[in-house]
Every structure is written in C-alpha cells, then in structure tokens.
Amino acid sequence: MADTFAKYHCNYCEEDVNGLRVRCLECDDFDLCLQCFACGAEIGKHRSGHAYQFMAGVFQDTGNFSIFPGQGHWTAREEVRLLDAIEQYGYGNWEDIARHIETRTPDEARNKYISSYIDGAIGRASWKPALERLQLPIEHTVPDTGPLSPTLGSSLPSQPPSTEENTILGYMPHRDDFEREWDNDAETTIAPLFIHPVDDEDVDMALKLAQVDMYMRRLRERSRRKRVVRDFQVVPQFFKKEREKAQVPPKKKSKDDKEAVAEKLRTISQFQTASEHNNLINSIVRERELRTRIRELLRYRRNGIRHVEECHEFEVARSRRDRKKENKKKGVSINTSLFCKVML
C-alpha cells in the first residue's frame, strides 16, 4: 500500500517527480525528470548515453503526455503513430496516416508533420540543407508518371533548336512527337478493340487486356528510345558529323583502329553517357597501341637489342633482308615460267 503513494525524485535536481520520469537501465535506482533528461544531465557514474526507460506515475498513462507543448496538444502516442505511419505509408498519403493515428484528421497530420519535423527544430537539425531552402519530400499521390506523362522528359536535354533540323527529322517540339514514330503501327493493335461489359466473357476480357498490355510495352520502348536519343544527344552529333562531311572533300580511306572499335561497341553505347563511351573507346585503342609496342620491344630483346639507338639499324637490316627474299621469290617464279614456256 505504501508503494502506491510513493513519490520519486530526480537524482540530478533533487525535485519530486509526480508524472513521467526516465529510469536508467545501467545505474542502480537512478531516475531523472524529463527536463534534466532533455538537457543530457550526467552525475556520478551515470552518462547520457546509458540505456533508459520511460516510467509513468501510478495513475498516469505512459503515452498521454505532450512532447511539444502548445502545438495542438499532440500526445506522445500520437507522435509515435504519426512517425510510424509516415514510414509505412509514405509522405503524402494523409488519409491512411490519419486512419493509423485514429484520433487526428488528414489536415492535422499534414500540418503537424510539416511544422514539427520539416520546418521545425527537428527538421532543421535532421534534414540536410539543399541549396538555400529545403524542399518538401515528393508527394506519392501526384499524377501518373508513366510513359505518356508530361513530366517524363522534363530533366532531359532539349531537341535541336534548329527549325531546319526539326523539319528534316519530322519532329514537332511542342508535342515532343515525330511525324513517324518508332514502331509507328503500334496503335493498330488496340484500334479495333471495344469493351462490351455485358457481352464479353472473362476470356475475351483477358485477351483484350493482354493486347492493351502489349501496346503499353511498345509505348514504353518508344519512350525509352526517345530518352536515349536525348541523353546521348544523338541528333546534334549526327548533324554535326554531316556538316563536317559536307565541308571536307570525300576521301577514300579504310577504317582506322578507333572507328573499328567504336563500330564494335555501338550496341553498348545506350548504357553509357557520351563522355563515358568515348573514354572507353580511347582506352581500348590506347591498350592496343601499348600491346603492339610491347610486342615490338620483346622482338627487339629476342634479337639481342638492348639500346634504342640499335632499333633503327635493326629495322633497316630487316627491310633489306625482306627485299632480298621478295626478289629471290620473284626470280624463282620468273625462271619457272620461262622453263614451262620452253617445254611447251
């Protein structure tokens, strides 16, 4: 009976604690009031980093107290439910969040989270500043961001501004469409479809939905190809090369090593940016040059050459020997042809 009316006191400020208190789980019989606990009080063997537990008074509920006084009188239980709901349902789903809290409306939940955890002291201390002002988290309830969304290409480079180039491409900048799109006949898949809610059976409905799904896949592929063209700026590079070709007279030449490598790596260019792809090609060409040079140096070493000055003399002697071999082969072939003519 005596424990029922027992009073607890704060071991730091020595004041009586009638309501909620904090008990240290690592120190024996050590309690703190909420004010001293919030200040990080340390005394004796107790440290602010020790594990702790909230202890309620005899006739007090552990969650029925306010953490932020004067802000709508939100209890600790409501604060915890708000944070749990934000983590579970995501920022912006205020209807689900309010149902999870059970005692607040969607508007109250939204205003509370923004005022306390974004614009308040907790938000300023926990959110990393981005430029001059923190922006609100992205709402999960915004309109569709699928392949036909108007925001799909907002962060992508713009198409070439030249009217002449747009005319050649058949590109309409205001609509972000071409006169002839990739897979231009995709719409014919769903053009004759018509849903009859009464006459259609489940099998017919499933087949029509499958055709719609096939159409959406083709639209996504069309959108992906547009995105690749923008990200890698294929169109400006194409017209730039065409202008350079028009200025330079045509020359008959075989593909050099760099062009051959670029031709082989064309299929993987869509997975890299333009600078990354060029760096990869230059690195491979440089590697081949180094391998060729290493083979030459090893050949010099096998022939007993130890100094760079001797390489020129070795190459001159080797070319002389090669010419002698070629002349000897030509002489043998000429003698053979003459002998055959004489015999005939």
UniProtKB/TrEMBL annotation:
GO terms for cellular component: nucleus; SAGA-type complex. Residues 142-164 are annotated as: Disordered. Residues 145-163 have a biased composition (Low complexity). Coiled coil: none annotated. InterPro entries: ADA2-like_ZZ, Ada2/TADA2, Homeodomain-like_sf, Myb_dom, SANT/Myb, SANT_dom, TADA2A_B-like_dom, Znf_ZZ. Residues 69-121 form the SANT domain. Keywords: Metal-binding, Nucleus, Transcription, Transcription regulation, Zinc, Zinc-finger. GO terms for molecular function: chromatin binding; transcription coactivator activity; zinc ion binding. Residues 5-60 form the ZZ-type domain. One of its GO terms (biological process) is regulation of transcription by RNA polymerase II. Its main location: nucleus. It comes from the Eukaryota. Residues 71-117 form the Myb-like domain. This is Transcriptional adapter. It comes from Penaeus vannamei (Whiteleg shrimp).
